[in-house]
Input
Amino acid sequence: MSEYMIIDGIKAEINGEKNILELARKVGIEIPAFCYDPELSIYGACRMCMFEDERGRLEASCSTPPRAGMVIKTNTAKLRKYRKMILELLLANHCRDCTTCHMSGKCRLQEFAYKFNIEGVRFPNNACQLSPDHSSYCILRDPGKCILCGKCVRMCNEIQSVGAIDYAFRGSKMKIATAFDGDIANSPCVGCGQCAAVCPTGAITIRDDADLVWKALGNPEVEVSVQVAPAVRVGLGTEFGFEEGTNVMGKLVTALKEMGFDKVYDTNIGADLTIMEESNELIHRIKKGGKLPMFTSCCPAWIRFAEDKYPDLLDNISTCKSPMQMLAATVKATYKGEKKHVHVAIMPCSAKKDEAKRAKFNGDVDYVLSAQEVVRMIREHGIHFKYLEESLPDVPFKEYTGASVIFGASGGVMEAALRTAVETITGQKLGNVEFSEVRGMQGVKEAEYAVGDLNVKVAVVSGLKNATEICNKVRSGECDYQFIEIMSCPGGCVNGGGQPFVDAFKRSDMDYKGMRASGLYKTDANMSARKSHENSAISALYDNFFGEVGGHKAHELLHTHYEPKNK
Amino acid sequence: MIEGMVIAGIATGANDGYIYVRAEYPKAVARLTLAIEQATELGLLGDNILGTNFSFKMHINRGAGAFVCGEGSALTASIEGKRGMPRTKPPRTVEHGLFDKPTVLNNVETYANVSTIINKGSEWFKKIGTENSTGTKTFALTGNIQNAGLIEVPMGTTLREVIFDIGGGVRDGGEFKAVQIGGPSGGCLTEEHFDLPLDFDSLSKVGAIIGSGGLVVMDQKTCMVEVARFFMDFTQKESCGKCVPCREGTKRMLEILNRIVDGKGEDGDIELLKELGEAISKTALCGLGKTAAGPVLSTIKYFENEYKAHIYDKKCPAGACQKLKTITIDPELCKGCSKCARNCPVNAIKGEIKKPFVIDQKLCIKCGACLSNCPFKAIKEM
Ligand code: SF4
Ligand code: SF4
Ligand code: SF4
Output
């Protein structure tokens, strides 16, 4: 027998919804909230989502489970009055310089102030006097915009288990702070940007480096090349009216050309290169008794995390540079032009900004732009994105395989590596190239494959909390995987901190990560070459430039090493 | 109390008891430590109590003096070593309490009653007090009262009995004005409540609470706006900062109250205080926030005229608010020595030597520096 409750006169069937807020959404009632996010624990602090029961009592809908027979109202005169007061109080303590805020148009506070018709604020405001923290290459924290919803804290602690930020001080002095209230750059922050992805206001945003790139583009003495990561092409379309997950690479290439980039390359070539080197390394480790399990190394936030929290496991991490750094190193090393060469990378990621600055990468990537910054640049340039013709990237870094494009989804690197490793080990062509066990948006995936006479056990993990659990098992010797893929962002780079902002309501209403991932898998399925070693441009690169896979030159340009943070 | 907790342990199957006490109360901590040691020596605590197979250990947890840690979920969080911050309910403490285990959480007074009730029976206990509020209640009687101290009275004892029979009336022959009941977030009661029985039902009817059992007696020289301001200052500092109405709302209420006692109150302030107070009480996450506006709302209810006098006439009827005083020089008594002018930090006093000096009321900040300095007692404060 189904159970019901009555919300605003509507009969709502209860199907295991965790709280009344979610149930109300299903019957078309939007209860306002700041601190609620379906993927985080319940916090119950903003008090916007209260409902009124039959006896006139108020409760928060985010923390009340639906019960059969309950009769509630979500929009009474009393509730409206209190919601307006809460908004007025928040606005009074918020630096309201909306016109110059990156979140303008996407900010939840701005939206509610408008929706609830807040016409004035009766309290004095000093919020704009608080100074932002510019210390990180990845994120920008502006405490004057913070409404203390605690989403960033829950993200950083519950999902990422980094614990870079937490609440400090009491009462109206409370704020979000790092340990000892220092700069975020001197905290354990790994730069994943997931806090910015959930922050409903402009209090945490991805650092913006667009001005530096505009400057390079405007300089006739400089040649500017750019690479575009796989996840960006399925993330950025929504900003221009495309369905979530649509692959808009062709239009993006045209837009970048219009903006003045001299050469547009595809990070996918870097990904194919990574697979060549990484699968070779894996086979080598397995066959020659090297350190196992081997961890992937594409995600710079994971690398920072490991260097800080798992220094004893650094030898387990593949020495391969990330696709971005591999391609950049190759682009810079093969550049023959006369002019000064600036190389830009467009990434779904804020941590890549920090990766590019690492001294051992010699500034191969001069600037990293997140998808968000590129969207703003496209708008600033007056491009009508939707109506652009499609075009292809430039030689010699344009030809890629289906294996590389799936790097953007959790499990993609694993699948791409398996395609090449299995064929290399067995010497036989794979019948089915799809390893569906490692696909999907779950945080932890495991699979076991018989490869020739080897038994290969793999794990795919996204979200650093999940990574912590796997790392602890590896440390204690409780697991016998040979290969583990780790991505910091839940679901992989399709959900990177630098991707266009996804509002909490949209997060609960649709599987945007899954849609972006399936955009990538669709592209892969339509390719004729679906294994990195079938990329003829890559073969040419090895023949003419690198020599052998894993050889001397490859090592020099495509590999790296890691150092414990506190050394 | 220890016995009460052990009994609660037997009843619920708990083997660990925690006492949460402020670190600022070293005497209480020392006494508790001693009591636990003695009880353990006598075999009344620890493993196999009195030879049974029941074991119970007591832990003393010293809190850092946060008022909000009186709230159950903040208290358990604090014992767990986390930030003392209340969380939403459900789940309640009896389902998910300390270390996520079902937890019996009570005040000292409750546990202290347990063994007596078991010894003498619940019928005996119910005979004390009123029908719905049985037993006794301890109050901390302080303020302008002759006999201050901790008292224990049967529930339902009237305010008059407490203040006059036990407390001996207002101190120094002063005149009674009000009593603040229930601690910093309680409300005030006035003369009209003298015959009100102190029990849960009667108090809730007049919008007051027993709360922490504080009873602060105030005489006519007490300014009720200042009382409200003082308590609001306390609660807003003690708010954990988690929920918006409590964190932001109490800050704004305090801001307004500060303005009013400084003589900068504006038309509309009383209404805004009421609006804020109501919104905070109805929407705050925990008991601290829900009751934070109590003192303000109840002083407005019974002493609105005092608020009005501060706001519109810039006068404090009790003569307590320094910033609302007028300081003048009596020209008859002033000898024109200029000592006051030299001591005024804002140069508000002007005059010619040997002629009466005058205070410019627009400049005066009511600091009182001149008052104590006049050798001829010519300066008056009103
Ligand atoms: S960027 Fe990631 S690690 Fe840094 S504070 Fe935000 S969530 Fe935490
Ligand atoms: S920084 Fe953003 S997410 Fe974090 S508490 Fe403030 S408003 Fe919420
Ligand atoms: S998962 Fe991808 S987007 Fe997220 S931090 Fe790692 S590399 Fe960046």
